[in-house]
Amino acid sequence: MAKNSKGIHHITAIVGNPQENVDFYAGVLGLRLVKKTINFDDPGTYHLYFGNEAGEPGTIITFFPWDQAYKGKIGDGQVGVTTYAVPSGAFGFWEQRLSKFGVPFEKTARFEEQYIAFEDPHGLHLELVERESGKPNAWNLGSIGPEAAIKGFAGATLFTANAEKTTELLESGLGLKKAGQENDLMRFHASAELGNVIDVKLTPVGPGRMGAGTVHHIAWRADDNADQMDWKRQIEEFGLQVTPVQERNYFKAIYFREYGDILFEIATDPPGFAIDETPETLGEGLMLPKQYEHYRARLNQDLMPIAVRKLD
């Protein structure tokens, strides 16, 4: 029986200075730094995870921050826009907050919803949209209470080099439900309460170039290891090559590049971020996989110091 994706597990992007990254996503947007670790494939670089208070799937944005990284270009083969869900009635708060921190924004509309569009310090395209679905985020760093706090992902807009094949994969390969089309955007729905709305831009914008300010990949949810293997078989039956399982400590991952050149991942919900820190202390220590533990002293010396700071 064909499987239906719940939606987004996480989104991973490339950015510049790591303290600027922490200041914006924790200090300005109010997300919790739930894990401070390293890029398993480039251990001299941080891998930072931000999400809701528990670091639940559907709320996690992760970053590879390289100070002085060359600038990327958002384009086809990438997530073009990452959209966050905030509670109904929260727009006034966010307009004031973005203005307070000097973040330019504009209000847009599509599919009968209003959006606040802006960029992070390194050029990632972000949006806020008011949604009823999704539980409130209880994490509080400063003046952002649950009545306004970002719940998690609302969804994402995909820029593709082959819209016909990308939309076919979303519908027939990942089991998302087509919800409609407006101008050059086609909308799909997944079943989860967060990370469940995907828009695909049907007209190409030109090739993207990976670098600071671009999304590296988007990950979809798998219930567990067995479910992930079922997904692997389904995607391979769709005609795409899927990597072997990669151990990422907090989830297991498989990867494939779809026909529109976007890098997709399918990640397991378990075990989650509390396997090496308590729920109360998530994100406080530098957590290393076993194969890099003997480099801890060197990494502590080489990695740029970062801190979560209240900016109110």
From TrEMBL:
Location of the VOC domain: 7-131, 152-269
GO molecular function: dioxygenase activity
Pfam families per UniProt: Glyoxalase
Keywords, in A-Z order: Dioxygenase, Oxidoreductase
Alphabetized SUPFAM superfamilies for the sequence: Glyoxalase/Bleomycin resistance protein/Dihydroxybiphenyl dioxygenase
PANTHER family: RING-CLEAVING DIOXYGENASE MHQE-RELATED
Protein known as: Ring-cleaving dioxygenase
Organism, scientific name: Planococcus glaciei
